Amino acid sequence: MPRFAFCCFAMLALSLPVQANAKDAVYDLKQAVSRSLDANPAMEAQQLAVDRAKMDVGVAQSYFWPTASWQVNRNRLHNSGDVGTTEDYSNKSYHNGLRVALSLFSGFAHLNNLEKSMLSVDVEEARRGQARLDLIGNVQLQFLQLLKAREDMKTVRDSKRRITTQLKAAQAFVKVGMAPYLNVLQNEVELSKVRQQEIRTANAIRNAEVMLNRYLGYTEQDSVTYTGNLKDFNGMVEYSEEEAIKTSLRFRPNLILAQKSVAVAVKQSHVTAGRFLPQVSASYDSVRYSKYYTDPHYLARDYTREYWNIGLNFSWELFAGGGTAFALLGDRKALASLRKSYEDAMASARADVIRSLLDIQAAKELIATSHKGVEAATESYAIASKRYMTSIGTVVELLDAQARLTEAEAGHSQALTEYQSARARFFYNIGKENLGLD
């Protein structure tokens, strides 16, 4: 028996999924987003909310079925004084019976509640879809910020390398009397600025990694490798403005949520209006009743009765102090508010899509312009460096050229980031999941 139990435990252990060691975890953008959807607790919470809404559908369906209850009562009456009537004699009574009841008409409340609960499932599904899009967008934007910070670090280190070379050249010129010591000081100032930027950029990289770890279900201390380059994403946005707006109005979860919320509010107003209608139910009772007298003079009068009863119950609330009327008016005001919110959400969706397309177009133009700027700044720096090394140019000219090159490289990285970020926001705004920005 112990050997059998050990074998069962071993098989169970082998069948369980093994959590990968964070040190071995390597993710590109698509893999990181996919992992976050599986591991982020917020997504699990949303799925549990959907499951809870489905249970409420079962609750609403139960009102169409009969209910059955078993009732048992035991009572003892002890009279130590004068006895007046038969019921005053000391006795024990037993009552047990079965009651079955079925609602035949409830002002359509059960039907409306069922439809309302089914719509509530759709509402929670839409909330889950919105949570997925939010998480995908957050991970993508954070991942792009990480890649940009790495590009910035490359730019900073290239700048640091150039200034270090310039500093060594200035020190050499000072030694042989070919340049003033001021050139050395100016290069040291620029090198100090670059080192400060290097520290800030390293901190930005670490902050981005910490946020990605949290989205992916890792701790802040876990060492996870994120791979990629801003130039790796070659996907295009091939939607026209009209196509994008139509797609957005059809698939955006927040619009679906707003639409379903309106439908839920309609059903709630119908439930409230149903209180003005009569309630009809049927019932069946099967009862056994026994009474035993403990007084010695009345022992012979013990008895037992068995009977059944079928009833049709009708009730109609004619006046409730205006409570039902005010409740219905409140439901209608809430419905009107939700309809206005839906109209506003649709207008906002259209604006978001148009803005995303404008941002994409502007970023594409920025990429082309910044690329030319990098080429020109690179050539300018090469000329200024050559002029300085041959004692034709000044250190100010060289430092200006170096600063312009660093700025141009940073601007190009920023343009690439803005383009990919605009694409990520575009897919978010039309309600489409594009995990890897393909």
Description:
This protein is an alpha+beta fold and 438 residues long. It folds into two domains: 22-63 and 107-277 and 323-429, Up-down Bundle (Outer membrane efflux proteins (OEP)); 66-105 and 279-315, Outer membrane efflux proteins (OEP) (Single Sheet). It has nine helices and six strands, in the order αβααββααβααββαα. A four-stranded antiparallel sheet has the order 2-3-5-6, with no helix packed on it. It has a two-stranded parallel ribbon with strand order 1-4. The longest helix has 67 residues, at 109-175. The chain is elongated and about 140 Å long. The two termini are 56 Å apart.
Describe the structure concisely.
This protein is an alpha+beta fold and 438 residues long.
Q: What profile does the largest beta sheet have?
A: 4 strands, antiparallel
Counted beta strands: 6
What's the domain count? 2
CATH class of the largest domain: Mainly Alpha
Low-confidence stretches: 1-20
Principal-axes geometry comes out as elongated
Oligomer: single chain
In terms of structural class, how would the helical and strand content be classed?
Answer: alpha+beta
**How many helix segments?**
9
Order of strands in the sheet with most strands: 2-3-5-6
CATH architecture annotation of the largest domain: Up-down Bundle
Give, in order, the helices and strands.
Answer: HEHHEEHHEHHEEHH
The helix content, as a percent range, equals: 55-70%
Whole-number radius of gyration? 39 Å
Determine the strand fraction and express it as a percent band.
5-15%
N- and C-termini, Cα separation: 56 Å
CATH homologous superfamily assignment of the largest domain? Outer membrane efflux proteins (OEP)
Mean pLDDT across all residues, rounded? 87
CATH topology of the largest domain: Outer membrane efflux proteins (OEP)
